[in-house]
Amino acid sequence: ALVPDHVENADELKNGLRQLHKAFTQAPILGSLLDTSKSSGDLFTADYKLLSSLLQQALKAEQQPDLLEDSSATWSNALTALGLLDAARLLDDRYNLVITNVPYLARSKQNDTLKDYCETHYADAKNDLANVFLERCLELSQEQRRGVIQIVMPQNWLFLGGYKKQR
To answer: How many Å separate Cα 108 from the centre of its chain?
Structure first.
């Protein structure tokens, strides 16, 4: 409903919003591990700026008093989509400095969704969520890992055999 059919590249925009929604359904479990570039399909066939511009236009149109009452769902959907779009942009960006105290959770205590995601995208670090987050923080640093990472995490991975590939 947010993308009128007459808009140029309407199919791309609809697909971008669909993929954005699909990727963020896992956000409560994956949090900042969520990486739009790792989602199935091309998440942003339409880029961030184009989607954001379209959503801003939809919100502007919905601000007209006679439309507000009839289309509160459209208004809510547009606001939600803008928030997701902004979060996706932040999670897709690269940073000079990444600082965090990572969550510690052994693989045996992870739910199946988290286990599968870690196995698929961070196989060498999957045994503890802390190590998975270390890998994610490295991804979030500047290209070719030129950024600085300051991280608080257990040190056992520095000597345990199960982390040899990750080291």
So the answer is: 24
